[in-house]
Design goal:
This protein is of the alpha+beta class and 624 residues long. The protein has 27 helices and 17 strands. It has 4 domains: 4-101, DNA Primase, Chain A (Alpha-Beta Complex); 112-238, DNA primase DNAg catalytic core, N-terminal domain, CATH 3.90.980.10; 376-446, Up-down Bundle (Pheromone ER-1); 476-618, DNAb Helicase, Chain A. Helix 22 crosses helix 25 (540-551) and helix 24 (529-535) runs antiparallel to helix 25. The longest helix is centred in the C-terminal third of the chain and has 29 residues, at 560-588. The structure holds zinc ion (ZN).
């Protein structure tokens, strides 16, 4: 499909897709008064609901993390789809027939992603059924040998790819999927053969349970593909650096427990979950990377700098230790929340469960140590700590590890730890760490590490690179600006056609001024009011703020008198600011030297004072 979706059709989708229905598929919503609904935010971890849905206006907004938008935005964010794909999915659900305008632009394939997801779902179903058939004996034996019965296989959606060569292709063709689509989905190869043949398969899903691809293990010696493990190649929906096996099962628990356990293989994820470690995930066919880390942090609701634990299970062998050290050289932010769980016997969670039972798997995770300590211990290992000079050398080697910790609240703990590992006095250790820090500051190569910790997310709501600052909703000085805009957005008909003569200058904060300027641009009391206001600005911060203000409750029952009083109060504050500026200028203007100017300023001041008294009178009702 090429071209652009007709605007009217998009509007129709917006109208028909009920935001509460769309959100309810992912979040449990409860009435919150005033026709609004509340639930736990799917985009950040929280214990008390701050995720609000206002069906009457078709918006959702999270007061915790600032995520907000309409049904289309929600589908985009939760399923990781493009705008066009989200519109298409909602159109399917609401029975809207989309018309596509050919704009002659670059060829887009808005339907492809959705089509691939559908093909993957059908393939998963097919593979699952094959696992129960007579041809899949070897697959069932392999699973059985690792301690997974039929119920476990079903729970994890394990399947079997038959050896025939074209069985999946033929099945999906019969269902209406074209070869070109199946090639793009990574399900068949260019020449029409099934991509996976004679293998056990695990469906790799996103957190919303859509099947993105598959991981497959070799079963037969005569397998034409040499690799023991084979994954779906990169497709429009499957990006190996962004997917984690088990995420669909672990997502909720990761959020609830603020913990994720990273294991190495598909059977390890199964063994961990069956043993009660229900936050286990594994990277698929690639090393755990920064994108995976960000994905987990998002699920753990990483609000401040460091919250939540990511536990890596490693073999006790050298390779495992190397892997742990590799994590250490990655994203600095991630390190303080990183733990390692080493199994001294060298058994992976799957074998551990098999040989020593489920409790042993839980104990492995229970034995986790902070990555810092693990790295420190490893660093100290190569020194002779029985000798004074050995201890000093070890201290010098380990000190840079402590200085690389950006969260100052953690530094003392690590100092104490290092001191006890070395058997040295903590003050001595602190002095050496301070010297190491000074050396680093003079070394431009390492300067990056000395940057102050990033601002808490709460402050900038993730809009750090935007020019417009995000106004603090608790700022009392800006309370009237916020209140007026809430009334204007939620109850526009309470104002007159000139917005009771409110002007952009009456708003001192640029974001609030931006919202008002957007409101001014929209024709008076139109249909789709909220949507039009949102489209009246290109500034994403202003758009986001509009949604917040559309959803945020108004404190009192709003009527016309209340709106009038509020607008007056806003203007009063604006006039008071003007008066203050004017007085300051008057003081700096010599009436003898600049007589005319002084006179003009003075008469303006008198006018403003009259206006101030009027507004004071009119704004009395707005005092809350
Ligand atoms: Zn949130």
């Amino acid at each position: 499909m090429a071209g652009r979706i007709n605007d009217e059709d998009i509007a129709l989708v917006r109208e028909r897709a009920r935001i509460d229905d769309v959100v309810s598929a992912h979040v449990t919503l409860k009435p919150a008064g005033g026709g609004s609904l509340k639930g736990l935010c799917p985009f950040h971890d929280e214990k008390t609901p701050s995720f609000q849905v206002t069906p009457a206006r078709g918006f959702y907004y999270c007061f915790g993390c600032g995520e907000g938008g309409d049904a289309i935005t929600f589908v985009q964010k939760i399923s990781n789809l493009s705008f066009t794909e989200a519109v298409q999915q909602l159109a399917d659900r609401t029975g809207v027939q989309l018309r596509i305008t050919d704009d002659g632009g670059p060829r887009q394939e808005p339907g492809l992603r959705v089509r691939i997801l559908e093909a993957n779902a059908a393939a998963e179903e097919f593979y699952r059924r094959q696992l129960m058939g007579p041809a899949a004996l070897a697959a069932r034996q392999m699973l059985d040998g690792r301690g997974f019965d039929r119920a476990a296989a079903e729970h994890f959606g394990v399947g079997y790819a038959p050896r025939g060569g074209r069985e999946l292709k033929n099945h999906l063709n019969r269902m209406g999927f074209k070869d070109a689509e199946l090639v793009k989905a990574g399900l068949i190869r260019e020449h029409g053969h099934d991509f996976f043949q004679g293998r056990v398969l695990w469906p790799i899903r996103d957190s919303g349970s859509a099947v993105l691809g598959f991981g497959a293990r070799k079963l037969f010696d005569d397998d034409r593909m040499p690799a023991k493990y084979l994954n779906t190649p990169e497709t429009p929906v499957y990006k190996k650096s962004h997917v984690l096996y088990g995420l669909d099962l672990a997502r909720r628990n990761i959020g609830k427990k603020s913990q994720a356990v990273v294991v190495e293989g598909y059977t390890d994820v199964m063994a961990a979950h069956l043993s009660g470690v229900d936050t286990a995930v594994a990277s698929c066919g690639t090393a755990f990377g920064d994108d995976h880390a960000r994905l987990l942090q998002r699920l753990m609701g990483n609000q401040g700098a460091f919250s939540g634990e990511v536990v890596f299970t490693f073999d006790g062998d050298a390779a495992g230790q190397k892997a742990a050290l590799k994590v250490f050289s990655g994203d600095q932010n991630f390190i303080a929340q990183t733990y390692v769980a080493i199994e001294p016997s060298g058994l992976d969670p799957c074998d551990l469960r098999l040989q020593h039972g489920e409790a042993a798997v839980r104990e492995l995770v229970g034995r986790r140590v902070p990555l810092y300590r693990f790295v420190m211990e490893n660093t100290l290992k190569s020194y002779d700590l029985d000798r004074v000079d050995g201890r000093l050398q070890a201290l010098r080697a380990a000190a840079p590890l402590v200085t690389s910790i950006r969260d100052t609240s953690l530094v003392n703990g690590y100092l104490r730890e290092l001191a006890s590992l070395l058997g040295m006095d903590i003050d001595e250790v602190r002095a050496e760490v301070t010297r190491a820090r000074r050396r680093q500051q003079h070394d431009p190569q390492r300067g990056r590490r000395e940057e102050p910790a990033p601002e808490p997310v709460q402050e900038d709501r993730g809009h750090a690179d935007q020019a417009t600052p995000w106004p603090d909703p608790r700022d009392r000085l800006l309370g009237v600006e916020r209140g007026t805009l809430k009334l204007m957005l939620q109850h526009p008909t309470l104002f007159d056609t000139a917005w009771n003569h409110v002007r952009p200058e009456d708003f001192s904060h640029p974001a609030y001024r931006g919202v008002f300027e957007a409101i001014q641009q929209v024709a008076w009391v139109p249909e789709h009011w909220a949507e039009q206001v949102r489209q009246a600005t290109a500034d994403p911060v202003v758009q986001q703020l509009e949604i917040a203000l559309l959803v945020e409750p108004v404190l009192r029952t709003a009527d016309e008198a209340y709106a009038t009083a509020y607008a007056s109060r806003l203007q009063l504050l604006g006039v008071e600011r003007e008066i203050k500026d004017l007085k300051s200028r008057l003081q700096r203007t010599n009436p003898l030297e600049h007589e005319a100017e002084h006179k003009r300023l003075f008469s303006t001041l008198l006018e403003l004072e009259v206006r101030r008294k009027q507004l004071q009178q009119a704004s009395l009702g707005a005092l809350e």
